[in-house]
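re the bet — no i am not wrong, look at it urself. input seq straight from the record:
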Amino acid sequence: MAIAKAERLMNLALCLLGTRRPLSKRELRESVEAYLEAGSDDSFNRMFERDKDDLRELGLVIETVESLDGEIGYLARRDSNRLPPITLDAEEAAALGLAAKVWQQARLAGAASGALQKLRAAGLPEDVDPYEAHGALEPRIPVHETAFEPLMLACRDRRPVVFDYRKANAAQPESRHVEPWALECWRGHWYLAGFDRDRGAERVFRLSRITGKVRSRGARFTAPVPDVVTVRETVASWAGESADRSALIRLRAGAGYPLRAKATGVRELGDGWDELEIPYGHGLDAWLVEFGPDVVVLEPAELRADVVDRLRAVAKG
C-alpha cells in the first residue's frame, strides 16, 4: 500500500510539473492510472484531495487556477518549485545531524530524518555525515508522555485544548481549558505554557501530570500569545532557582544527584545519609516529593509540612 501511494503521488507530481497549463480534475484522473481505478467520483475526489495535501506538505507548490468558464485547474510551476543551491559546511551539517539525533526518541524522528534526506537531494555534500558522532555524549530529549504530540500540534495550529490535570498536592485531577503557547523540556521533564481560560491567566503545566486524552477545540484563542514565552524561567522559579533562603535536608547517599548539584553545602552523616543545604523557593516542596523516601526535610518547618501534605495527598490518590 505504501509503495502504491508513493507511486501515485509521484505520478501526480510529474503531471502537475510537466504541464504548461492548469489541468482539471477530469484530466488528472485520466492521466494517473491509480485514479482511473477509483470506484466512484467520490472515492476519486477524496483520494485526489489527500494526495494534493500530501504533496503540498512535502513542499510542492501547487497552484489552483480558475478558468474563464469557471473550471478549476491545477499546476505546479517549475520556477516556483526550484530550490536555490544549498551549501552547508561541515559544522552546519553537524548541527543539523545533532538536532535530528536529539529527536531520535520522539515522534518527530521520521520528520527529522526526512528533512535530512531532502537536504541530501538538494546538495548536501556527500562526504559529510550529519549523523556522525561528534562527542562522547549523545543528546536525547525523552518524550514518553502521550500528551506531547497532541499538544505540540495544538501549539503549532493555535487550537485550544482540554485535558485533566492532577496537581502535585491533589488527590484527583481536574479539567483544564487551555490555549497552548509553547512546549519546553527542563531537567528531563516536559512543560506546557499557555493561557488557562478558567483562571484567566498564564499557567505552566507539567505533561506527566496530564491524565487521559488531550481534546482539541475548534474555537480560536481569546488571549494574545506573547512574543516570548518563558517556560523555563517560570518552572525554574517554582523550583527555587531564584530563592533567597536555604533549606536543610537529609539525602540518602548515592541518590538525588539533581539536588546535590544545587547544594551549597554537603556534610556526611554516616549510616548512608548526607546533609545538604539547598536554595529554598516556591515549588521546592513539589520537587522534593519526587525523590520519595530518599529525602527528609529537616528545616524550615513550613517546608517539611508542605512536603508531608503532598506525600499524604499522593498516598490517598
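see?? The longest strand covers residues 174-186. told u. also The chain is about 35% helix and 25% strand. so pay up
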